[in-house]
Write a structure and sequence with these properties.
Helix content is 53%, strand content 12%. It contains nine helices and seven strands, in the order H-E-E-E-E-E-E-E-H-H-H-H-H-H-H-H. Helix 2 crosses helix 3. The relative contact order is 0.04.
Amino acid sequence: MKISNETKIGLLAVIGIVLLFLGFNFLKGNSLFNKETKMYAVYSDVLGLTKSNPVVINGLKVGKISDINGGKDLKRILVTVSFTQDVNVPNNSLAVINPNLLGSPSMEIQLGNATTYLKDGDTLVTTSSSGALDEAMKVINPVLYEVKNAVKSLDSVLNIVTNVFDANTKDNIKDIITNLNAVSKSFAVSAKSMEAMMNDKTGPLAQSLYNVKSFTANMNSNNGKMDSIIENMNIASGKIASLKLGMMMDSLTIAINNFKEGAEKLNSKEGSLGLLLNDKTLYTNLQSTTNKMNILIDDIRVHPKRYVNISVFGKKDKGNYLLTPLPDTLNAVKK
């Protein structure tokens, strides 16, 4: 079968286009035969990072930047990272953009120590990177770079202090210092008072110690008298103990028993007092006698001529004897 020249030219053109496409993607770092793993990182400033910039881990290139999209507001720039090698990236790893004064920037992934790894489509943790000037300064003069970082830290601390110590806080600190001054003055006065009190000649403490010393000296000199007083107290206590307290208690017991017997006789019907207190008949007779005496006294008061007659021509009043006492209108209870 004979192939025409037009067919040969068409095949050569297709082969050339394919080779051109493959070569172009190879030069860009794209792989057409290996499956790429994509992860994402979000920055507010990419520091000049562009597509096809390398992604390195510990100095080894493991991928490239395949896409950068900041949207319309460019506040959150999404960077797509394509890994050309199969690597394990811990989930606490940091994605840092490293600027380069002599070339294009690159992304460095600082591996973490987690035991779980990111998967295809996950988002890397990002952190702000130092600028190109800081990188150059780090190389040219490391001491000046560290001083600059220290000044930044000090400036941050001063800003925090300025924010914390507002006008009210400053006034409070002034009040605290004023109170501390007053307290220190009080301590100074107290120290002087303590010094005066601790004076070994004129101080009150010295006088008190002298009085205690004098008292103890007097006690020491009067030990004989104290021994005599204690001995007299022992003798007195012995005499009190030697008293016939037993006989006194027996006499008191006999008196109590006699009083008890007398009370029992009063409560019984034996003896005159017992009968007088406990015999109801005697009480009834006394009440009857009292009633009759009241009748007699009332009859004498109403009919005196019946008992005393002083008239020459009169006669005794007879009849109409009282049988019950008259009502006592004088001492009657008023209603």
